[in-house]
Design goal:
Elements: E1 6-11, E2 14-19, H1 30-45, E3 51-56, H2 78-82, H3 84-94, E4 115-119, E5 123-124, H4 126-133, E6 136-140, E7 144-146, H5 160-168, H6 170-179, E8 183-184, H7 185-190, E9 196-198, H8 203-217, H9 220-232, H10 238-252, H11 256-267
Parallel strand pairs: 2-3, 3-4, 4-6, 5-7, 6-9
Antiparallel strand pairs: 1-2, 7-8
């Protein structure tokens, strides 16, 4: 696929979406947002894709929103700015996710594949928000992550006030939002903002190894259902979540992937999951 501000590549079941404005530390624009959405939807629809990696070109992940592109707003409908177009597009393709997962950035959980944020450098403002809405965050030891909103006279944007406490706890979330100070990768790992930190020199290889494990060794059907369960269960009681899990477990027992999961384990060979 040809894009102007991102690169989209698929190799060995891994779709890599690279924010590609390295001279601007991959600062986001409205065009980049549309291209990211389009690439996510394409990866979600592609049976050959089992996992998605979101990363940045050059030395940055994303330095926030490029304020010089605000002039584009004059040519944008309000729907494009508040996320309605994003939500409609995802909903049309993947059914009807919870309405909270249809916003400008909060649609990431509606994509039926695992999304890994490979934070290779600064992830600030909207860059942090995009990383937070990914399913798993892997960071280079050179990464910096921050929410500078209060220093700019702004508030917690795009649902991060809902999401961040769920990731790092209420006190850590308020500390990050109040002080507007970025944290390094080590501190981000300590508070649970990222799952793993790797040396910068090995970062790309480590991300490929992690994504490759999901692509090769895990049932794509199980990943899809598990992701849907986790996000939907944020709005369910324990009893509701348990009942649905029991129903999904019964369905899983009748699948090709379950049979393959047992067979490859007993035969001590590489799994050959089909997603069915």
């Amino acid at each position: 696929m040809a894009y102007d501000e991102i690169i989209y590549e698929v190799t060995d079941g891994i779709a890599t979406i690279t924010l590609n404005r390295p001279d601007k530390l991959n600062a986001s624009t409205f065009k980049m947002e549309r291209e990211i959405r389009d690439a996510f939807v394409a990866a979600g629809r592609d049976d050959g894709v089992r996992v998605i990696v979101l990363t940045g070109a050059g030395r940055g992940f994303c330095a926030g929103f490029d304020t010089s592109s605000l002039a584009e707003a004059a040519n944008e409908s309000q729907g494009a700015l508040d996320g309605e177009q994003l939500g409609t597009h995802v909903e049309d393709v993947f059914g009807t996710p919870h309405p909270d997962y249809l916003g400008r950035y909060s649609y990431f959980p509606s994509i039926p594949k695992p999304i890994i944020a490979a934070i290779n450098g600064p992830a600030v403002g909207l860059g942090m928000i995009m990383a937070m809405f990914c399913d798993v965050r892997l960071a280079s030891d050179s990464a910096k992550i921050g929410a500078p909103f209060t220093r700019l006279g702004l508030v917690a944007e795009h649902g991060i006030s809902w999401l961040l406490p769920r990731l790092v706890g209420l006190s850590n979330a308020l500390d990050l939002l109040f002080t507007a100070q970025p944290v390094n990768a080590e501190e981000a790992s300590r508070i649970g903002l990222v799952s793993h930190v790797y040396p910068a020199a090995d970062f790309r290889a480590k991300v490929a190894e992690y994504a490759g494990h999901l692509a090769r060794n895990v049932s794509p059907r199980a990943l899809r259902i598990t992701k849907a369960q986790v996000y939907a269960d944020q709005y369910r009681t324990l009893d509701e979540a348990t009942l649905i899990a029991d129903e999904e477990m019964d369905k899983s027992l009748a699948t090709e992937d379950f049979r393959e999961g047992i067979n490859h384990f007993l035969e001590k060979r590489q799994a050959r999951f089909t997603g069915r």
